[in-house]
Amino acid sequence: MEIKFCSNCGGNMKQGIPHGDDHMRAICTQCGFIHYLNPKVVVGCIPQWGDKILMCKRNIEPGKGKWTLPAGYLENGETMEAGAARETLEETRGMVNITGPCRLFNIPHVNQIYMMFRAELTSREFGPTPESTHVQLFQKEEIPWDNIAFSVIHKTLKDFFSEKHRGSHSFEIKTMEAPLPHG
Amino acid sequence: MEIKFCSNCGGNMKQGIPHGDDHMRAICTQCGFIHYLNPKVVVGCIPQWGDKILMCKRNIEPGKGKWTLPAGYLENGETMEAGAARETLEETRGMVNITGPCRLFNIPHVNQIYMMFRAELTSREFGPTPESTHVQLFQKEEIPWDNIAFSVIHKTLKDFFSEKHRGSHSFEIKTMEAPLPHG
Ligand SMILES: [Zn+2]
Ligand SMILES: [Zn+2]
């Protein structure tokens, strides 16, 4: 998002390095207000029901028609765990208890931090929502591995199932690199 | 930060719930642009040198004159580990290797996520900076426990030293509640 006008006074912006700073910022030419752009936090979870996990088929871009885990932007005033549960409810109508941290991803090329939790559905109630055309439980072998919306979700699921197979869960931080341009 | 003018067109803003959303947002009355405000990520570390840790005395508000660990806002395009190392260099002139995650804090009342790593200084070189009047190595008993700038830093240090005493480090997520008003 480019900042063309000052959100404080409506004045025109210029690019510059503020005194004592070392990054280029958008600075208001009129009131001097400095606008900072920072990474956003995405929170989500792997909702478990027995040996199955809940996934949703996206009804919105990006990744429309592909499968994913419930996840979305953390809101002001919210804990990461509450945000992950809220997104799960919004996207799957499923209620979860967050049971622990699973994977944290740096995705610097899109200015995101992605926090994925392990979770347990509190009941077998779920279903389609405005954001998801289908909401479905899958065993590991049933997951549509070739039709997953985001590489960060693919990686989360692969790691989750290999840890489950091994019999213990861990927390790790990973960095996702920018995909290579198609050639 | 209140959004008074649209950063896209300079128009006046109104508060409302966009279609398909469930939170109040600042919406432009002129071009319809929706402005989202999201939590910011703070990254920092506990720089270790033998059995000592490096702390800095703040030269800027908030907490001017009090001691802290190096930490600051994650920048766009940066991994959390790189951000924590950069903040350490900026605030202490010390170079660190990030060795692992320590504590992650939800601080919903100030819309922050605070990620603290364990780290090791790569040399004994460090010193004051524009942001820190003093930069100093402390053994556990020497830490100015009663003069620490932020409760999240106090908690990180307490947890770090009790885990060190126990002989193994873990990663945990905690939530810091708003401080009670002075009465
Ligand atoms: Zn301005
Ligand atoms: Zn506008």
Automatic annotation (TrEMBL), chains A, B:
Classification via InterPro entries: NUDIX_hydrolase-like_dom_sf (IPR015797), NUDIX_hydrolase_dom (IPR000086), Nudix_N (IPR029401)
- Transmembrane region(s): none
- CDD domains referenced in this protein's UniProt entry, alphabetically: NUDIX_Hydrolase
Report the domain of life of the source organism: Bacteria
Q: Which residues form the Nudix hydrolase domain?
A: 38-161
Protein name according to UniProt: ADP-ribose pyrophosphatase YjhB, NUDIX family
